[in-house]
Amino acid sequence: MASPPPPLPPPEWAELPVDALLAVFERLGAAGVLMGAGVVCRSWLRVATREPRLWRRVDLTGCFDPTVDMEAMARAAANRADGRLEHFAADRFATDALLFYIAKRWEFLFSDGKKVLTSAP
Question: What is the pLDDT of residue 119?
Answer without folding.
Answer: 45
